């Protein structure tokens, strides 16, 4: 449990980090980013915020180098450090399970380096899969006509509800430095998730789009296939996802916006197979 009087400095107050801040009752929170109160380039103000902070969390993705470590890393001292990384650092595993002991071989070298650099600083590095939650989920994409299916057999991804992610980061306040996968318990094909979201909304699933018709970035994403294990986070952080699979997570999100009981939605008997 987080102490009630901490002072958190967030680098990059976006969708995910905002969910962490929202759960910290009684905390003083300062942040860079469009929604924050600090200008990242204001060296004097940011340095003062670092000096005031008990905890520092970065969600800023790297370019060639990590901008947070490059500009301010030498001023962190012995404060609690957290970094929101990506399970993309594991690269493709051919659908096999992967845990924190696996080598770092992701296709984005700057992310690989940033992950390693933050760990070298003594940070708690939270490796995150696909993030979904209120206003940013397959339900929203399906409703907006922005979702698609690929028809790729045997390909699975892991994901995490933003509320579970926030709870995991806060559980990490009392944990030793190191890497932690924050993922739900049921890796699943994207098509199964999109189809379930469509059923919840009562509309036909979107069309299948051939892989060759996708953007280069989307093709690169779909070139990877892995199941992310969360056992270390459960053991060391004492954390367990409330939304243990996308079925629970999407039902809960649908219930927030729909008058129909979420329990009436049809279930998928085995959503990890197509």
TrEMBL record:
PANTHER family in the cross-refs: EPIMERASE-RELATED (PTHR43574)
NAD keyword on record: yes
Keywords on record: NAD
InterPro entries reported for this sequence: NAD(P)-bd_dom_sf
Annotated protein name in UniProt: NAD(P)-dependent oxidoreductase
């Amino acid at each position: 449990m987080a102490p009630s009087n901490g002072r958190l400095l967030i680098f990059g107050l976006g969708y995910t980090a905002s969910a962490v801040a929202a759960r910290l009752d009684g905390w003083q929170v300062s942040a860079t980013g469009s929604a924050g109160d600090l200008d990242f380039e204001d060296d004097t103000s940011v340095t003062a915020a670092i000096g005031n902070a008990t905890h520092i969390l970065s969600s800023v993705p790297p370019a060639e180098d990590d901008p947070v470590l490059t500009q301010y890393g030498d001023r962190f001292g012995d404060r609690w450090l957290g970094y929101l990384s990506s399970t993309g650092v594991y690269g493709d595993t051919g659908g096999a399970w992967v845990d924190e002991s696996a080598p770092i071989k992701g296709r984005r070298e700057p992310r690989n380096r940033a992950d390693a650099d933050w760990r070298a600083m003594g940070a708690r590095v939270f490796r995150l899969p696909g993030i979904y939650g209120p206003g940013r989920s397959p339900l929203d994409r399906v409703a907006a006509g922005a979702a698609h299916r690929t028809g790729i057999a045997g390909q699975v991804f892991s994901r995490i509800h933003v509320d579970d992610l926030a709870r995991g980061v806060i559980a990490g306040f009392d944990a030793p430095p190191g890497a932690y996968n924050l993922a739900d318990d049921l890796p699943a094909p994207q098509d199964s998730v999109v189809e379930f979201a469509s059923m919840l909304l009562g509309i036909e699933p979107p069309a299948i789009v051939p892989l060759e018709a996708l953007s280069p970035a989307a093709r690169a994403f779909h070139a990877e296939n892995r199941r992310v294990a969360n056992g270390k986070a459960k053991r060391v952080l004492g954390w367990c996802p409330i939304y243990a699979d996308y079925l629970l997570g999407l039902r809960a999100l649908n219930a927030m916006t729909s008058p129909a009981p979420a329990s009436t939605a049809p279930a998928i008997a085995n959503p990890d197979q197509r």
